[in-house]
């Protein structure tokens, strides 16, 4: 059984890299806050990392919602096409 990722798998991973990187940045910032709770710069880095991650999540949600938008319906003229049929 071949367990190597397919090109499609690699494309999906590449598309998720900004979100993965933002998650890693958030964990790094959390570690800084936990090791130095009084460090103002650590708290600022944590806020920025959290904001960046939330921004990416909102952008992804908006993108996904745009792809799954409600179907567009066309109006059908209920009147007959031939005026003779209307009489």
Describe, in plain words, how this protein is organized in 3D:
- The chain has 87 residues and is mainly α.
- It has one domain (7-67).
- It contains 3 helices and no strands.
- The longest helix has 29 residues, at 7-35.
- The protein is elongated and about 85 Å long.
- The termini are far apart.
- The model has no long low-confidence stretch (mean pLDDT 86).
Topology:
Layout: H1 7-35, H2 40-67, H3 83-86
Helix pairs in contact: 1-2
* Beta-strand fraction estimate: under 5%
- What's the total number of strands? 0
* Amino- and carboxy-terminal Cα gap: 71 Å
Structural class: mainly alpha
> Which stretches are low in confidence, meaning pLDDT under 50 for 5 or more residues running?
none
Number of domains: 1
Shape: elongated
The biggest beta sheet reads: none
What percent of residues adopt helix (DSSP H or I)?
A: over 70%
Q: Based on the structure, what is the oligomeric state of the protein chains?
A: single chain
Whole-number radius of gyration? Answer: 26 Å
What is the N-to-C succession of helices and strands?
HHH
The total of helices stands at 3
Mean pLDDT level: 86
Jot down its keywords.
87 residues, mainly alpha, 3 helices, 70% helix, elongated
Concise summary:
This protein is mostly helical.
